[in-house]
Amino acid sequence: MSSVPEVQAATNAVVTTIDPPLPHAPGGPLAGVRVGLKDSIDTAGVRTTCGSAYFADRVPDSDAEVVSRLAAAGALMVAKLNLSEFAIGLTSQNSASGPVRNPWDLSRVPGGSSGGSAAAVAAGLVEVALGTDTGGSVRVPAAACGVTGLRPGISVVPDAGTFPVCELVDTVGPIARDVELVARVFAVLAGRDARELEPAPPRRIGVPELWFDDLDPGVADLVAAAGRVFAEGGTELVPVQVPGIASAQDVLYTIIYSGIADLHSERLACPELFQPDTLTRVQVGTGVSEYERAEALGAQREFQRGLDELFEQVDVLLTPALPVDVPPARTDDDVLTTTRRLAQLSAPWSLHAGPTLALPAGRHAVSGMPVGLQLTAPVGGEDLLLDAGAWFQQRTAWHTLRPPCAVD
C-alpha cells in the first residue's frame, strides 16, 4: 500500500481534500510544508463538519486564527482531517464520517479526538497536522500513532475559530513526525519569532510514583528505558508525589462534561443526530450541578498551586502517554470506560496551565504498536520541553519509523 488514495481509504483520516491548497503566502518559515487541519478548525469556503451530522454542510465564512497564521507563514493547507464527533472522545470511532484507523494496525484505534491528525502524519499524508487537546486529544493520538504532539499551555495559541469542547482547558497544538517540525509550527501558531532549538536534557526530571503500579508491562519497560536515556545524559531522575493526582481525572471530567452540556444542550432537541456515545457524554454533563462544577474549579486551582510548587524542585515531569497498549477498535465497547482508561495519564495535565509534549518511546514488545511518553513543564515552559524532546530524539530513532500503511 503506497498511493495516497489507498492510504486515505485505509485510514479514513481525511474528510476533505483541499485542492488547490488554501490561499497562502509565497514564502515564509513554513513555505511548502503540507499541513492538515482537524475538521473542527474553521476554513473559509471549505466544509468544517466537527465529525457530526449536525454540521454536515457547514461552510465557515472565515478562517480560524491559526489557519490565518499558517497561511501567512507559507504553509500548504491541503486537507481537513477526521476526528471524534465534536472533538469528544479518545478513540476517533464516533465520527459521522466513519471511524479513523491506526496506520500501524488498521484493526486498532488511532487515539482521539485528533485521530485523523495523528494518523495522517504517521501515514505520510501530510507533514504536519493541527489538533486540539482538552483531555489528551493531541497527546493520546500522537502516542498511539508513533508521532510527536505538543499541547501548548492554556491561551498560548489562539483558539478563535476552533470549535470548543470546554474553553477552560482547550488548546490547539501541532502534530508532526519530530520535535524540530513541531517547534517550527508552534512558533508560527504562538506568534513568536522562529527559534533555533537548543537540544539539552533537563537537569532534574520528576517521575510521579502513583501511576506506575497498573501500567501495561510493555509500556512500563519502554518508558523506564526513556528515563535511562535522560539519566545517561546527566539528568537526575527524582521520584515525586503530585498533590491531588489521585482525583485529578475526576476533577477534569466534571469540568469538561459540564462544559459539553452547556455547549450542546440545545442540540438535545434532535438527539438522533448525535453519535450514540457523544449523546451519552452530553447527557452525563447535564447531571453535573453548579455546586459540583464550582468544587471542581476550586480543585483545579489547588492542583495548579501544587504543580507550581513541585516545579520549584524539578524541571519537567516524565510519565507514559498511555497506560495500556493501543486498543483494538470494538463496536461493543463501553466507550466511556475505554476513554477513561486511555486518558488516565493525559487528563491530569489538562488541569495544568503549562505545556505537555508527547514523544515516541518505542514499540510494544507484544503488539508492535507505538508507545509514547509525556514530558510536562511549568507554565511558559514550551521551549524547555522542545529542547528536551529534540535532545531525546537525537539519541533515539523511534520517531523515524514508518507504519506499513504509509505513503511511499
Uncertain segments: none
Largest sheet: 11 strands, mixed
Instruction: Give the overall shape.
Output: globular
List the secondary-structure elements in sequence, H or E: HEEHEHEHEEHEHEHHHEHEEH
| Tally of helical segments | 11
Helical proportion, percent range:
25-40%
Strand order of the largest sheet: 1-3-2-4-6-5-10-11-9-7-8
According to DSSP, the number of beta strands is 11
Helix-strand category = alpha/beta
Total domains: 1
Q: From the 3D coordinates, which CATH architecture would you assign? A: Alpha-Beta Complex
Q: Calculate the mean pLDDT score and round it.
A: 96
Q: How much of the residues is beta strand, in percent?
A: 5-15%
Distance between the termini: 8 Å
CATH class division: Alpha Beta
What would you give as the CATH superfamily? Amidase signature (AS) domain
InterPro entries: Amidase, Amidase_CS, Amidase_dom, AS_sf
Organism: Modestobacter italicus (strain DSM 44449 / CECT 9708 / BC 501)
Protein name: Aspartyl/glutamyl-tRNA(Asn/Gln) amidotransferase subunit A
GO molecular function, one term: catalytic activity
Could you walk me through the main structural features you see in this protein, from its secondary elements to its overall organization?
With 408 residues, the chain is α/β, with parallel strands linked by helices. The chain has a single domain, classed as Amidase signature (AS) domain (Amidase signature (AS) enzymes, Alpha-Beta Complex). The protein has 11 helices and 11 strands. The chain has an 11-stranded mixed beta sheet, sandwiched between helices. The chain is globular and about 55 Å long. The model has no long low-confidence stretch (mean pLDDT 96). InterPro entries: Amidase, Amidase_CS, Amidase_dom, AS_sf. This is Aspartyl/glutamyl-tRNA(Asn/Gln) amidotransferase subunit A. One of its GO terms (molecular function) is catalytic activity.
